[in-house]
Amino acid sequence: MRDRFRTDRLAFGVDDILGCLAQALRYRGAVALKLPQDGVAARFGVRHQLIDLLQRLDFEKNDAMMHAAGGIVTTPADLVRWLEANIDDGKIGSSQAIDPAAFRDAHRKQVDVKAERGRFRAYGYGLGWYQARLDDHEVLFHLGGFPGWQTHVSFMPEARIGVAVVTNASGPALPLIDFIAASIYDRLLDKPEAGAAYDRGLAELKTALDHGRARYAAAVQERAKRPWMLRHPNAAYAGVYENPDWGTLRIEQRDGKLVASLAHLSSVLEAFTQPETARIELVPGNGDVLRFTFGDGDTADTVHMGKLVFQRVQ
């Protein structure tokens, strides 16, 4: 599957994503970018991590995998309606669907915040919305993320336009979707320098992605040189371990290797640097260290993952 998805184009090709993973709404102007049937979503349709080659992630977003902060499952049509409601203080078409006071409160700055998301410069935060500037324009935005997914939703109250960008990739996809959103605004606002800004930003993203790939490849090669630090046979570590807050951690033998599984996430154990430790990547690009401890028997009693302790139950 990795060979099938091998690509040297930035994040599948920014032009494709612009065409099929972005929806823009110009209120009253009825300008929207449509989703073609043969775009990236149809070709890939799964969650990916963009690091070197595309890696398919088994991160279905369900109750067992929902982020602690919550989350939603949405559609392009729903995102357009949400933007419309925010732009017009709760109105959908001619219907006042939600009390306009609720939207005004949500959009009002509650605290001072400094944050940058590409060209989006935030100076405050309301109830779920960052207040920001995109060049000379006032904009409100909110981002979302989940391993294998990234989203950008924003609108300009005065210009009465909004943009939603969603992608089935993570990692370097975050600056990519902010770049896409800013490029869409440039075109919707008829900026004469839109084309030049797009070319310049695309080149910068490509350079950053190339550097990131090189760093990632170097880190993988360096880790491969580590000696194996688990001193017992694999069977001594295999088993079922429990933590009262995090649930069940399974260590299994598969094809001569040890594999750790936590909920729907899994990773092959690789060498780490200390005795009786191993490294895992439940989320690609984010490593955790497992440390096994033994009592009087021949099998591990506990597994430590950071400050978490899992006790063997089987």
Task: Describe it.
- The protein starts with 13 loop residues before the first helix and ends with a strand.
- The strands form four sheets. The chain has a nine-stranded antiparallel sheet with strand order 16-15-14-13-21-20-19-18-17, with no helix packed on it. A seven-stranded antiparallel sheet has the order 1-11-10-9-8-7-6, with helices on both faces.
- The protein has 314 residues and is α+β, with helices and mostly antiparallel strands.
- Helix 5 runs antiparallel to helix 6.
- The protein is built from six helices and 21 strands.
Based on the model shown, name its key terms:
alpha+beta, 6 helices, 21 strands, Lipocalin, single chain, 314 residues, Beta-lactamase, nine-stranded antiparallel beta sheet, seven-stranded antiparallel beta sheet, disordered N terminus
Secondary-structure blueprint:
Elements: H1 14-20, E1 22-26, H2 40-43, E2 48-50, E3 54-56, H3 76-87, E4 91-92, E5 95-96, H4 100-107, E6 111-117, E7 120-125, E8 130-134, E9 137-146, E10 149-156, E11 161-167, E12 169-170, H5 173-188, H6 194-224, E13 239-243, E14 247-254, E15 257-262, E16 265-268, E17 270-271, E18 277-283, E19 286-294, E20 300-305, E21 308-312
Radius of gyration: 23 Å
Mean pLDDT: 80
Write the H/E string, N to C: HEHEEHEEHEEEEEEEHHEEEEEEEEE
Category by helix and strand content:
alpha+beta
Q: Reading side by side through the largest sheet, how are the strands ordered?
A: 16-15-14-13-21-20-19-18-17
Distance between the termini: 35 Å
Shape: elongated
Number of domains: 2
CATH class of the largest domain: Alpha Beta
What is the overall number of helices? 6
Residues in helices, as a percent range: 10-25%
